[in-house]
Design a protein that fits this description.
The chain contains 12 helices and 10 strands. By secondary structure, it is of the alpha/beta class. The protein has 2 domains: 42-134 and 260-329, 3-Layer(aba) Sandwich (D-Maltodextrin-Binding Protein, domain 2), CATH 3.40.190.150; 136-252, Periplasmic binding protein-like II (D-Maltodextrin-Binding Protein, domain 2, 3-Layer(aba) Sandwich), CATH 3.40.190.10. 44% of the residues are buried.
Length: 334
């Protein structure tokens, strides 16, 4: 009887072992077949309309990223609500690294202060990858505007409150923040006209539909060089290497004024860390290539990269800083 029970136990173990072995064998091909990232097309969402600074940077980087990873990279322009449409789309996309957004201070930080019903939380629903570029904005006016300096523009605006139209890339965008801070510090009133990106704002400025724009260097440089627009000053604290002959606004009549813009790459929150790390490595290498830097410098932008952790901390600091300024200066969507 004891021998019989032993034989049954051995047989049972053999059956269970065979089943376990079969399951393990079946699972091995499934694990082995998991494709390495990236295995398909990557969508790079540009959170402004074609022709703006974000669009320009996205297109410079996309072709190089495609070469680096061996997959197609498509630039998908999703303007509107100062990049909030693009950011919400990114936040709600599968967290697999196949949707990447190039955003800015608006949709990555301050939109929460201007839009009451955002469909995403910039600090919780998006994972930082790396900043891409930084640069000051340029205060440009249509040639029909008689002001040829910041002081003359301020005098003109004080003489005609609300008559000069300020075009921006959207409520809460870098141009809007720069313009709102300028109005607050210079004690003037301009008519705010928000667009769905810097490109459309520039089109209307060139047509004389609006009188001034705090433009990204990328969209301003060609039109300044062609003489189609008049540049008055830069928004950085000091003169820019890109525009050495232009004074800063602080130097030209508004002491203490400073505002600068930046763009950076993010993905959906909960994207696996190894994918975030891979994207960070690829973007950092691409952005720091000499040819990339030269192309961006021609647009008035300087390369700026970091770790995902450092970029996340910077986004939080911008959120806090501009939130304080918006409240103290009483900056509104209008």
């Amino acid at each position: 009887m004891a021998a019989e029970r032993l034989l049954k136990r051995i047989a049972s173990c053999a059956v269970h072992g065979a089943v376990a072995g079969a399951l393990l064998t079946a699972a091995q091909p499934a694990c082995a077949q998991q494709p390495a990232y990236p295995a398909k097309t990557i969508r790079l969402i540009a959170s402004q309309a074609p022709g703006g600074g974000i669009d320009s940077v996205a297109r410079i980087v996309s072709s190089k990223l495609s070469e680096a990873v061996g997959q197609t990279v498509i630039v998908d322009n999703r303007p509107g609500a100062n990049g909030s449409i693009a950011a919400e789309l990114t936040a709600k996309s599968p967290p697999d690294g196949y949707t990447v957004m190039l955003g800015a201070v608006g949709n990555l930080g301050v939109n929460t202060f201007f839009y009451t019903k955002l469909g995403y939380d910039p600090l919780q629903d998006l994972a930082p990858v790396t900043p891409a570029v930084s640069g000051g904005n340029v205060l440009v006016v249509h040639p029909s505007v008689p002001a040829k300096s910041v002081k003359e523009l301020i005098a003109l605006a004080r003489a005609r409150p609300g008559a000069l139209a300020l075009g921006t890339s959207g409520t809460g965008g870098a141009g809007h923040l720069a313009g709102a801070l300028f109005q607050s510090m210079a004690k003037i009133t301009l008519l705010h006209v928000p667009y769905k990106g810097g490109g459309p704002a520039m089109v209307d400025l060139l047509a004389g539909q609006v009188q001034l724009v705090f433009a990204s260097s990328a969209s301003a440089v060609p039109n300044i060089n062609s003489g189609r627009l008049r540049a008055l000053a830069v928004t950085t604290a000091r003169r820019s290497k890109i525009f050495p002959d232009l004074p800063s606004i602080a130097e030209a009549g508004v002491p203490g004024y400073e505002a600068h813009s930046w763009y950076g790459f993010v993905v959906a929150a909960k994207t696996p860390q190894d994918i975030v790390t891979r994207l960070n490595r690829e973007f950092v290498q691409i952005l720091n290539r000499l040819d990339t830097g030269d192309a961006l410098l021609k647009l008035g932008l300087e390369v700026w990269t970091s770790t995902p952790e450092a970029f996340g901390a910077y986004i939080k600091s911008e959120y806090d800083k501009w939130g304080r300024i918006i409240r103290e200066a009483g900056i509104t969507a209008n």
